[in-house]
Write a structure and sequence with these properties.
It is built from four helices and no strands. With 97 residues, it is mainly alpha-helical. The longest helix has 21 residues, at 26-46.
Length: 97
């Protein structure tokens, strides 16, 4: 398991492991994502990330809102967007692993 060092890496890992709940309304899913982000922030601080690092990442994300960078898929460090079999890096390819 990869240990995330940034909020973006944490998001990519959470999305790769998150179960899909078709019953969740957008409001409920939004609340879940918000709380997951808050928890991830606290875990990163506990692991040594500084407040300034986390704030800088949030500001960088805010500046990307509405741009192509925002729509780019989140990937874990050292992983491509898609494997050689066409599986998204956010999912596990049984042939690659």
């Amino acid at each position: 398991m990869t240990t995330p060092t940034t909020l973006s890496e944490g998001w990519a890992l959470d999305q790769a492991e998150a179960p899909i709940d078709p019953r969740a309304t957008p409001a409920i899913q939004g609340r879940r994502d918000y709380m997951a982000g808050a928890l991830r922030c606290l875990l990163l601080q506990k692991a040594g990330a500084t407040r300034e690092q986390l704030l800088a990442e949030c500001v960088q994300f805010g500046k990307a809102v509405g741009t192509a960078a925002e729509a780019a898929p989140a990937t874990l460090p050292g992983r491509r967007e898609r494997c050689t079999h066409g599986v998204s890096a956010l999912n596990r390819c049984v042939r690659c692993d």
